[in-house]
Write a structure and sequence with these properties.
Layout lengths: L1 E9 L10 E11 L4 E8 L2 E8 L7 E9 L1 H8 L7 E10 L2 E8 L7 E6 L13 E4 L8 H6 L7
Antiparallel strand pairs: 1-5, 1-8, 1-9, 2-3, 2-6, 3-4, 4-5, 6-7, 7-8
Length: 156
Amino acid sequence: MIEIERKFLIKNTNFETLALSKNAITQGYLNSNASRTVRVRLKNDCGYLTIKGKSNASGTSRFEWEKEIDWKEAETLLALCEEHVLAKTRYLVPCGNHLFEVDVFHGTNEGLILAEIELQDENEPFEKPDWLGEEVTGKIEYYNSYLSQHPFSTWK
């Protein structure tokens, strides 16, 4: 499956009152190589194993495969992950005909808030809410796999 998404910084936290839900997420990387990542995630009472391929030139599209796995299996795999396991709260925020996933990071990435929107086509139009800031699609430093190796707290 090909994932098409765009990523943005956030100007303010007005999205919080519009959110349909919020969930705690813990995720780590068994492999954070830029050409392929293998991620383990805990969300609600589910575990997930996800493999992502290298992004295209614009950074909007890449292969993604995800499988739900047992919580205990995910916990065991999480213990094998590379350093700097990510902790974040994800808000699901509707806007027009789309749904933004807004991640508020914690721990070593505290202070970083990113919004992602998944699209059916790279050129698909979508409504941009007033809380949406600079687009950072394709900027590697905003990939979760990069943040697991170079936490936001270490940026200059």
